[in-house]
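Exercise 3.2. Students should predict the tertiary structure of the chain below and write it as structure tokens, then compare their answer with the key that follows.

Predict this chain's 3D structure.
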Amino acid sequence: MVTIPKSAILSVRSCSFSGSIPFAPYGQAAQLGLALAVYIELLKGRDSRWFGYLQSLPQEPVDIALFWGSDELDRCRPDEAREDRKLARTWVVGTEIDRELYDEDGVCLLDGLREYYHTVAERLLSSEYASRPQPYSIAGFMHAYSLVSSRAFLVDAYHGLAMVPIADAFNHAQENDVHLESDYDVCVICGSNTPCPHDETSMVANDDGRREGESIDTCDMVTNRPVAAGGEVFNTYGERLTNAQLLVRYGFALEGNENDMVSWQMDDLPPAPWMEREAFRTNVYEPILRAWPRDLRWVESERVYNPPRAYTVVRIEDRRESPTRRWPRRHLRPALDVNGDAKLSHPLWVYCALCATVRVRGPMEDVDELLRFLGQLAEMVHSLEGEAAGSEGEDGDAGEEEGVGHHRVGDADSDEPRMEVLDELVRTVEVVCREREKQLRGGRIGRLGEMLDNLGPGRVRTRYAIAQVLSERTILESCLWAWQQLGAGKREEVVQ
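Answer key:
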């Protein structure tokens, strides 16, 4: 649909100060570097070769939630808009929006932006404008950052994150019509997508991806399907983006976003009884999750689901023997959440089920024994939902693939202990959800709905914020209600 020469894109590599801005290929460091490149070109005005393109972009900061309540931008805004943003910021405390304001290491993104401006950007700009009036400010840098956050693409191994004219004009939809294509495997030194003199240094991103004698140096917006004449053409900024992520990065939300969820970090969850938290995580929880990352029984479950990825592996540094030496160690970052359908993710279910098992049966560190018991507990939940496997052959196939045992309610004399653990599992889920609810403002769901109805038209950000609280409370309450249906009375009927 659209072809954009890579010579037209704006990146840290192609900007006027390309040799002075620290380059990072991805992540927050890449966004900050590109924001500085964009800001420098904005300051150059007509002298920038991207002047025409930059004039087509918003001339005020994009209203991303990262900047709600920031003093640097709010001092320039009318009173009502300033109050709206500050009120919205207080409402999002404890929500998924609040979590998106921090990186994976718990560092505040806004604090990181301020530090980058004062230690990197301001130093570079002060040398450039040493003999002239200083037109730069942190507010201007934040404007550039908002453009990067809401519009940049990961282009290739040379440019990294970049602004791509025309490609950034498409609005977002989960079912998109077009997507960006670009040869990623280029020389990291010169950007060539054909063999070049730098190949001998072995620094190309991927030798196999380089084409002999071919030089297609473009970014292309390619259609996914036929597009009707006269209709808007949509790209997607991410098929699984939640409203919290959309608000923090792009400044808007979707009504009824099916990707919305409530998530936890490991340290947010109640500790397992009888064991120190880190020992439980390292010796019990992580080995079980590695061996059992998903379960076929959850495909049609009403209470548990298999996330696309059960966990990611992260490297941490661990001091052993010598305080001056660091040893890399791998840790799991599990997908601990309740999704928009009020279902526990499999990793969160495993954590709650382990806590319940240990609380009822006492300390257990035999991973194989725990796996067998949890597999039987999962089968019990599955049976109680009315979704028990139909035949012995189907049971065998599922158990063989997942590596855990199957057990039907009423099959053995050991049902009563499992019922006791199931009771404790329900109580554990309730504790997890209730503790998370305590972090949210606004009280009951009905009251939040009344607040939304009574908000004035000028409270756009506050409306977004309260709607987020309402969504998360609804998810948590629905999850609680579903698990409470596995009450003692219902289970007794199934056993009989």
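Discussion points: The CA atoms of residues 39 and 492 lie 67 Å apart. The two ends are 63 Å apart (CA to CA).
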